[in-house]
Design brief:
Layout lengths: L3 H14 L15 H11 L18 E2 H13 L7 E7 L5 E6 L2 H18 L16 H11 L5 E6 L9 H11 L3 H11 L3 E3 L2 E3 L12 H23 L9 H19 L4 H19 L9 E7 L2 E7 L2 H17 L12 E3 L4 E3 L2 E5 L6 E3 L2 E3 L6 E4 L2 H12 L2 E3 L6 E3 L10 H18 L9 H20 L3 H7 L8 E6 L2 E6 L28 H7 L15 E5 L11 H9 L3 E5 H9 L2
Helix pairs in contact: 1-4, 2-4, 6-7, 8-11, 9-10, 13-14, 14-15
Protein name: Group II intron-encoded protein LtrA
Pfam family, one: Intron_maturas2
Length: about 600
């Protein structure tokens, strides 16, 4: 039997070559065992693999029998997704974001559906969509915007109210049914949408929305919002109008004066008059470079979307922006059954920064002339500049972490100790600070004012030193001297199998930014492989703990969330630490002993 992943790869190629193709008979791929081994391979390494839903079902205990039970339930139509367990996480603005945590069996089925949907829809998604897609990220969205928003006059910042919570189920199913003509497959997606959620041991039905936290939610949201991408593309075609390159009257006048002066210079002999004309010619050249050359009477529209946030760049008048905003509001209300937030959907002149994905975006108005190739040009004029919002993002980040306080006398930031970290070891404290520094610096590596993070790096370093000094009840200088490793560096030494190492705090200028290189987003093709590791290990019918080999026993996967949390006191812990794996294929008897004691 041909592996399902190879078949999905072929489906993806068909969808890529023919965007209008309609797909049928997809449900049969969910009745193949190998797709669930691939799904387990995708899920077991995540931290959420050990998180319980409404029952005790987790990645622990995965087996061939479990796969067969799922397939049998799907085949005879008795499969019913369990309600998700609702929990809440805090948003940056202080509000709470609801998350839905499915049972692990439902996660496996959802991931199998996701693989099929991704193979079909990924090639037809817009190039301007970057959220929740393989090979794309915030940085690819920002990079594309940096290249394409050049010369924009206005920004339209878009925000859809409660996008995930307000997706209309009937509309979503209708959109999917246009491309997928398989009733059983579409009905299974409908079952997941209508599964409901449990909160405080009470059941609540779901009549709209995709619960955030589910495996299917991101791709279903992208399928839904792809309709918005197509609408903006249609809007762009009707809006764009290219006019011939026409010089402004002011530029033509200065250009003509300069040409006449050059002719006079050529007719004059060396002397005071010729030198005066040359000086005048130079002054006209400076004036020419300050004068707008092109008559900007064409209209252009550019667009980038990440999840439910989008930014539209308009080269035209503000009146056109008002028309675009009105059309977007009408389309989102009538076609997507959602609402565009009027207070958050702002029209901003491109000279002022617009906030998008944590960056401030603006178009430069820089008249500085610099040498370029064999001439002089205003190399920075009309280019897109990405800036770090230092006050709103970096300073707020420092206050939220408790790393700084504001001095009462002059309002400056002062690093302070984070007392909540003092129960950890010195190595854990420095590792925590280092991860926070690298995370923020890596995210903002595309910014033109990236060097301003030097102050952030300094505040974090001295906050770390003060935390260590608080822990050891000593002066900061003693900590510095104790862990000094050079003229201006310090770090915590620790032992590894390969020898002694030192954990240092990363400086902002040591971030290489390789993840932030200008990369053109491309379609990621599914890599076809015959078997997954879990599949091979289960099919081997060998217990990796007791060594028993034979098909007369049942074999299951024992799963732990983190190998580093194992103490090595039990035999199975010793084996998992030695293998450095979060999974261990064991026979049923050994699995019972692991959970209930030897």
């Amino acid at each position: 039997m041909k592996p399902t992943i190879e078949i999905l790869t072929r489906l993806q190629e068909n969808s890529k070559n023919n965007h209008d193709e309609v797909f049928t008979k997809l449900f049969r791929y969910l009745l193949r065992p190998d797709i669930y081994y691939t799904a387990f391979q995708n899920l077991y390494a995540n931290n959420g693999a050990g998180t319980k839903g409404v029952d005790n079902d987790t990645a622990d205990g995965f087996s061939e029998d479990k796969v067969n039970q799922i397939i049998e339930a799907l085949k005879n139509g008795t499969y019913e997704p369990k309600p998700v367990r609702r929990t809440y996480i805090k948003k940056k603005n202080g509000k709470m974001r609801p998350l839905g945590l499915p049972a692990f069996t439902d996660k496996l089925v959802q991931d199998a559906i996701r693989m099929v949907l991704q193979a079909i829809y990924e090639p037809v998604f817009s190039d301007y969509s970057h959220g929740f897609r393989p090979g794309r990220s915030c940085h690819t969205a920002l990079t594309q915007m940096k290249h394409e928003f050049v010369g924009a006059k206005w920004f339209v910042e878009g925000d859809i109210k409660g996008c995930f919570d307000n997706i209309d189920h009937m509309m979503l199913i209708a959109i999917i049914s246009r491309k997928i003509k398989d009733v059983r497959f579409v009905n299974l997606i409908r079952l997941f949408l209508k599964a409901g959620y449990m909160e405080d041991w009470k059941y609540y039905g779901t009549y709209s929305g995709c619960p955030q936290g589910g495996i299917l939610s991101p791709i279903l949201a992208n399928i839904y919002l792809n309709e918005l991408d197509k609408f903006v593309e249609t809007l762009k075609k009707s809006f764009d109008s290219n006019t011939p390159y026409t010089l402004t009257p002011e530029y033509k006048a200065v250009q003509q004066k300069r040409a006449n002066t050059k002719k006079k210079i050529e007719r004059r002999n060396d002397g005071e008059e010729r030198n005066r004309l040359i000086a005048y010619y130079v002054e006209l050249g400076k004036e020419l470079r300050k004068t707008p050359a092109k008559l900007c009477n064409d209209k252009k529209l550019k667009y980038v979307r990440y999840a439910d946030d989008f930014l539209i760049a308009v080269n035209g008048s503000k009146a056109y922006c008002d028309v675009i905003k009105a059309k977007l509001t009408e389309f989102i209300r009538n076609e997507l059954k959602m609402e565009l937030s009027q207070e958050k959907t702002l029209i901003t002149h491109s000279n002022e920064p617009a906030r998008f994905l944590g960056y401030d975006v603006r178009v430069r108005r820089d008249q500085q002339v610099k040498p370029w190739k064999n001439c002089k040009q205003r190399t920075m004029n009309n280019t897109v500049e990405l800036l770090i919002p230092l006050k709103d993002k970096v300073e707020k980040y420092l206050f939220n972490k408790g790393a700084v306080k504001q001095r009462a006398d002059n309002g400056k930031l002062e690093p302070v100790a984070r007392v909540d970290l003092t129960r950890n070891t010195d190595l854990e404290i420095v590792t925590t600070y280092d991860a926070e520094i690298r995370g923020l610096c890596n995210f903002y590596f595309l910014a033109s004012n990236y060097r301003s993070l030097n102050y952030f790096s300094y505040l974090m370093e001295y906050s770390c030193l003060k935390t260590l000094a608080w822990k050891h009840r000593c002066k900061l200088s003693k900590i510095y001297d104790k862990y000094r490793i050079g003229a201006k560096r310090w770090g915590i030494p620790y032992e590894t199998k390969s020898g002694k190492k030192v954990r240092k705090l990363t400086k902002f200028n040591e971030i290489d930014g390789k993840r932030c290189d200008d990369v053109i987003p491309t379609i990621i093709t599914i890599i076809a492989k015959s078997r997954t590791t879990i599949d091979s290990r289960l099919k081997a019918c060998r217990c990796e703990l007791c060594g028993y080999e034979g098909k007369d026993r049942k074999y299951e996967v024992h799963h732990v969330n983190k190998v580093k949390n194992l103490k090595g006191k039990e035999p199975w812990e010793v084996v998992m630490i030695a293998k450095r794996r979060k999974t261990l294929v064991v026979c049923h008897d050994c699995h019972q002993k692991i959970h209930h004691g030897f």
